[in-house]
Amino acid sequence: MPHHKSSYTARAASFKNPTASRLLKLMDEKQTNLSIAADVTTKAELLKLADVLGPYICVFKTHIDIVTDFDQDLIKQLEALAQKHNFLIFEDRKFADIGNTVKHQYSQGVYHIASWSDITNAHPLPGEGIIKGLKEVGLPLSRGLLLLAEMSSAGSLAKGAYSEEAVRMARRNRDFVIGFIGQRRLSVPLDAGQEQEDDFLYLTPGVSMAQPGDSLGQQYRSPEQVILESECDVIIVGRGIYGAADPVAKATEYREAGWAAYQKRLGV
Ligand code: 6AU
């Protein structure tokens, strides 16, 4: 059976990475494939979103470097909320340098990302060394990495052979690379000796039920297009939720739309 036709829980067993299995199971437990892109710039707003939206999401996605009053207590409180509401934390760092540099960026500096973020992401642009560097830090901590195989923005250069190479890099590092940021489930010819396609998670940004895009190149599609037509696993929604007058009501709508599309995909 193709991976996207199996339930999230059934797929959990084929991942050795504990973060991937945990995510897949908690999605079915909480009945949500919604991730919030919490792109707010104060500690108070970020924690408020995590607390009020926590029950409806599987992944809380941060851009920690946009928080003006960042401090260690923010991390402590965010981790407590992740426990309380059972969601994973994803720092959307988009690493893009050589292995030796990203290793330090991931573990050191002001943010110590590896110490609190279950998932992070990286551009495959520099080549496989970026994965090796991040893996040295992240694997002992059971973290998971997503590669940016495609982007949602207009004119993105991440397409075609570039995206396919991202999949091949991921196959060679399946202990740490749990999936992709992408716009659709990618189908790449099997490597010599491979009998079936490896399963990977696809987390997809550029989701809105109201807008076709923004003024800076972002392009939006609906939850149904992402989960059903493009066979991705998680919808990542930012302004469509936190920018609304009632974020909890909006999160409920996106959660229901994403879940209905998943059930349709499974044929239930
Ligand atoms: O829903 P929005 O447009 O308000 O926010 C989308 C979020 C932002 C982006 O930094 C991020 O998703 N994003 C990413 C990620 C998650 O890596 C990749 C991409 O191709 N497009 C994109 O918007 O936090």
From TrEMBL:
Record domain Orotidine 5'-phosphate decarboxylase: where: 33-254
GO biological process, one term: 'de novo' UMP biosynthetic process
Gene Ontology MF terms: orotate phosphoribosyltransferase activity; orotidine-5'-phosphate decarboxylase activity
Lyase as UniProt keyword: yes
Keywords associated with the record: Decarboxylase, Lyase, Pyrimidine biosynthesis
Pathway recorded for this protein: Pyrimidine metabolism; UMP biosynthesis via de novo pathway; UMP from orotate: step 2/2
EC assignment: 4.1.1.23
Annotated family: Belongs to the OMP decarboxylase family.
Stated name of the protein: Orotidine 5'-phosphate decarboxylase
Naturally occurring in which organism (per UniProt): Spizellomyces punctatus (strain DAOM BR117)
